[in-house]
Amino acid sequence: MEDRKISLNQRRTNYCGNFTKDDVNKDVTVMGWVEKQRDLGNLIFIDLRDRTGIVQLAISKPTADEKSFEEAFHCRAEFVVIASGKINLRKEKNEKIKTGEIEIIVEKLEIISKSKTPPFDIAKCENVSLELRLKYRYLELRNKDLQNTFIMRHKIVKHARDFFDENNFLEIETPMLIKSTPEGARDYLVPSRVHKGCFYALPQSPQLYKQLLMVAGFDRYFQVARCFRDEDLRADRQPEFSQIDIEMSFVEQDDVISINEKFIKSLFSKILNIEIKTPFLRLSYEEAMQKFGSDKPDIRFSLEITSLEEAALNSSLNAFKDAINSGGGVYAINLKNKADLVSRKEIDRLIEVAKTYKAKGLFYSKLLKDNKSSNFEKFLSEDEIDKIYKILDAKENDMIFIIADVNKETALVALGALRLYLGEKFNLYNKNDFCFLWVVDFPLFEYSEEEQRLVSKHHPFTMVKEEDLDILTKNPENCRAKAYDLVLNGCEVGGGSIRIHNQEIQNKIFEILKFSKEEINEKFGFLVDAFQYGAPPHGGMAYGLDRLVMLMLQKNSIRDVIAFPKVQNACELMTNSPSIVQKNQLDDLQIKIKD
Amino acid sequence: MEDRKISLNQRRTNYCGNFTKDDVNKDVTVMGWVEKQRDLGNLIFIDLRDRTGIVQLAISKPTADEKSFEEAFHCRAEFVVIASGKINLRKEKNEKIKTGEIEIIVEKLEIISKSKTPPFDIAKCENVSLELRLKYRYLELRNKDLQNTFIMRHKIVKHARDFFDENNFLEIETPMLIKSTPEGARDYLVPSRVHKGCFYALPQSPQLYKQLLMVAGFDRYFQVARCFRDEDLRADRQPEFSQIDIEMSFVEQDDVISINEKFIKSLFSKILNIEIKTPFLRLSYEEAMQKFGSDKPDIRFSLEITSLEEAALNSSLNAFKDAINSGGGVYAINLKNKADLVSRKEIDRLIEVAKTYKAKGLFYSKLLKDNKSSNFEKFLSEDEIDKIYKILDAKENDMIFIIADVNKETALVALGALRLYLGEKFNLYNKNDFCFLWVVDFPLFEYSEEEQRLVSKHHPFTMVKEEDLDILTKNPENCRAKAYDLVLNGCEVGGGSIRIHNQEIQNKIFEILKFSKEEINEKFGFLVDAFQYGAPPHGGMAYGLDRLVMLMLQKNSIRDVIAFPKVQNACELMTNSPSIVQKNQLDDLQIKIKD
């Protein structure tokens, strides 16, 4: 049982990936993992790896002593090794690695830790099953891409902190064991041992606390905060996730937007060396829906939605006429100059996409020169067809898609989905573009069929636009909120609002939401109380950090940017959590599992 | 229902506390809270406050219009106000505030939010009951001292991040919903909704994950991590707390110690402008116990413990002789030149202190010139007394205290407690000193009476000192660990260890701890697995961030440095959490409360 003395300062000259031509002839010591060992008989090559990259070790006798040569001979992938020797200029440069101009002629080499054969090839683990990769996450994380991901994530978060610090924001930690105020998603609960039958909740966000920090006069707050939602996971969700959470006092929407544009601009410049133009485009929710069929439009490409209401009003096609007459809509997109690329099979697929989004059907015209085909033009007069073509500026080799529905939103959302599908299918955008926009003027409320009442679209503390204050009582469903989402390439990366600091308005909102006095008191009593002691106007924003990092690094899933993610059933496969616990743990908490 | 448009950029010229003589004659706009309003009839003064300080507003007609004067007249403490006007040089400087040379001659003033009368005077809330202060924490946090605390805490944490970033550490977030591996303190549990009868635990520390990050090759990790312990709270504990958590690969104890000394040095220099000398003193656990009766000695003052074993060996006092003969000890401290200050009543109190720490009695001699008194010298010969005096260098006006016990530790710990009591009582140290030291060479194990086995003093992954490897099997209770605590002014502010990366040693340790194969597999299987794939030598450290901030800012409780702390029964008084939750929440989790 021997354990070697290793001292970083004395023993490791530099990280593997940092050696250059300038180090030639220097005596160095390196430590790392064996990426590959090649035994040429009298000469052994080892690619030694650490988080910075790879350096080649060359081991041969008598430069290396007998014992070192022996150790090198026994090295296998993922063994941990310490080696010292002299840096040598290589005859032939290896272009594939940073240190390709040099190698280390080894004098001493020792194996520090052995490794079993890894369950998969770490350098090429993309095709390994998710389950196996996550079970051995500590091995997958050795992959160069993943190492780089977490180095970049560190830099992104560091930059965020530097930026908000420079702009007078204070990072203040808010509690994790808080009161359960279910509104929106489901809370994770934590049983209290001291107070039988009582529970804490894990925060879905620091929303209420950050507002209290504004009441407390901290003026500008931020936090990289862990948040929790006990929801059934979709691909892009995790039960625990991180957000960059900010709040400011004495501000209006423009102030929050402006400082966040500065932040994004500096972040992309510093981390990716990409210049993002500010100010970002702003679209109202209404406009975003009308033009893109989405409240988070991907504006890397056009293919905008056009209303055919004018042409459809007295159409001889019943589907068109009925849609308009029932207060619905008829909308179209025009895929310019690509008709020849859309096969019959592709059209079937597009119809399926539209149906997935509840559209009853998809009308199309494929304007090929000699072989025009359409599934609806036969029902229309030439005049009607011309009118539609004119509105859509349809030319030869264009292909137009039309959806009519008695519900405008259904038609728009389905066409929006079709638009995204076509955008990707026909490479209508540059995948390396980063296109930001703000979606503003969200509705303050939406109707919940389930609860048979209006519910807050954002949250109950969101301020209504001044212009709509007059209709708050009579016409709440038409009120717009001082709420804003930041959208990047079709993903919502952040969102926020100006909050209500006025008691009267807040009470009005609670009334519209049909909250009883008891409910208000039970759920938000402390916040309502706090607002009676001099609340400043305030507002803020939160970024989904995982998603922002994912988009910046062009990864496919937020799992790729979280060190130890959970899978869809909320399990972590490496540790097998959640798990059964000991009976005395439950006894302490005075809870039991239902039969 | 009117809501005023406020734009930070256009409307707030600067924070209240930032105006100086250089701003005289400038037109400015300020926003903040009314600290005080004084109505002199034709002239109203308002002290306006924000997080930077106070500025004086002077409101009189006709400079201020009728409406503004009216609003100023109605201002009360904690109203939120916006005001604009011109900066004026004051005739008489107010030395008490930063902006005391100037005032703002107000032209416009508006009340943005009113406030009820606060339940206590925010400027003087030290004497308000803890319960009331915490119920209205958002008001207490407006207090200048508390504002400053969180500004400083932000700076401390920012510096920590900057430092570790500059030194190649990566901040990597580890999960909060993890597997329960009870060993040490009690876990907080989180019921899983998806997996009936299964639970997550909240982390007591990121220990296992940070070791896995080393196995994954990240080389240097840090994180400001939230940790949770479901323990009955002592004054200095919170159920959730933060630690600065670090881990390094390819290092030995000296490396970890050295980089952390650099960190502390830079932290105190940057934040407090105090130069801390490095390297810090290092004491072995044994030495710390012998000299100070504590493994976290306060070395701001001397008053060291001396063994009287030599003098007590054949003492005519049975208490001395018996203690030595049963393998115990006789120890003393000498309070130099203060005998005249120790009253009879004080002696009684000291005897009580000693008893609290399980000492059976306290022997003393008060060496006053004319009035020497002792409770034990009458049992000894003059020679024996002289010998003791000589060992302790006891002179006129010294007072010596002796504790004899059959258990050395009992005697030492009791004397250590007495030492601290005397140090504070007689002002033996400067309260503004910051005295750091490392305590090293901790025992690897300690015997648990409760479990009737050896348990890890630190944790089961702590490496044994090479010198003691030989006795690991035969004599484990004498093995010393590569563990180190950082002590500041008698408080442990951090601690860590070099970890085991060698399978054989790890298995040996598990064996000594009497862990069964099943237990190991169940609790740490993933870590044991991971170590079979090439584990680098590694070690690290964690700081109790709250405690470090508390000591740096010379606060009395960690509650003072946490924005929303919990009280002793783990309640948060502002939100009344934990609380009863809705039945359907428990139904979803398939748990119920025991009858």
Q: Concise description?
A:
With 595 residues, chain A is α+β, with helices and mostly antiparallel strands. Chain A has 17 helices and 23 strands.
In words, what does this structure look like?
The structure is a homodimer of 595-residue chains. The first copy, chain A, has 595 residues and is of the alpha+beta class. The first copy, chain A, is built from 17 helices and 23 strands. Chain A has helices spanning 8-11, 66-74, 130-135, 137-140, 144-166, 207-215, 253-272, 285-292, 309-312, 318-325, 344-356, 382-392, 408-425, 503-512, 517-530, 545-552, 583-589; strands spanning 27-39, 43-50, 53-60, 80-89, 102-113, 170-171, 189-191, 199-201, 220-228, 240-249, 281-284, 306-307, 329-335, 363-366, 373-374, 399-405, 436-440, 445-448, 453-456, 483-488, 491-498, 538-544, 591-593. In chain A, the strands form 5 sheets. An 8-stranded mixed sheet of chain A has the order 6-9-10-22-21-20-17-11, sandwiched between helices. In chain A, strand 2 (43-50) and strand 3 form a beta hairpin. In chain A, helix 11 (344-356) packs across helix 13. The longest helix of chain A is centred in the N-terminal third of the chain and has 23 residues, at 144-166. Chains A and B meet through helix 1, strand 1, helix 4, helix 5 and strand 6 of A and helix 1, strand 1, helix 4, helix 5 and strand 6 of B. Strand 23 of chain A pairs antiparallel with strand 23 (591-593) of chain B, so a sheet runs across the interface.
